[in-house]
Design goal:
By secondary structure, the protein is mostly beta strands. The protein contains two helices and nine strands.
Length: 161
């Protein structure tokens, strides 16, 4: 039986909650399951590590500390940006935007809008959070050579690049 391991494509249904409140922050239930290429940085490390060795039909339940999930919040990632850079844009607090930085794209949350500046938080929204997951293994398969070369899943439940 094929198990979740390096360079396999794992397809899972999952539910993520905050353990303190039980509130759900994400779930695949009600939509397609999530497929990812194991060992290529597509998922937080702790999530993958908890699934290693599991097979189709297995259900794993685990809690990740921030260090094993999205890291601790870094206040250096909260910056003020000149409001003129958003000229003509309808921006609001709690809006997620994407900035082009050094040829890459970085998402940020607008946390404050002042007269001349906006405050942008580049931390992942789940940074600093302890996260609880219930994950069911739906499928495990070998990755295609193209998926391995590109470092992510293609086709159904993945994304095409």
């Amino acid at each position: 039986m094929t198990t979740v391991e390096q360079d396999k494509v794992a397809t899972v249904h999952y539910q993520g909650t905050f353990p303190a409140s039980g509130d759900e922050f994400d779930s695949s239930h009600g939509s397609d399951p999530l497929a990812f290429l194991v060992g290529h940085g597509n998922m937080v490390l702790g999530f993958e590590q908890q699934l290693l060795g599991s097979s189709v039909g297995d259900e794993r339940e685990f809690t990740l500390t921030p260090e094993d999930a999205y890291g601790m919040r870094d206040e250096d990632q909260v910056v003020r940006i000149d409001k003129a850079q958003f000229d003509g844009m309808d921006i609001a607090v709690d809006m997620m935007l994407v900035a082009e930085i050094d040829g890459g794209r970085s998402a940020f949350m607008v946390t404050e809008i002042g007269d001349e500046h906006i405050t942008a938080d580049f931390n992942h929204p789940l940074a600093g959070e302890t996260l609880h997951f219930i994950v069911e293994i739906v499928e495990v398969r070998d990755a295609t050579p193209e998926e391995l070369e590109h470092g992510h899943v293609h086709g159904p439940h993945g994304h095409d690049h």
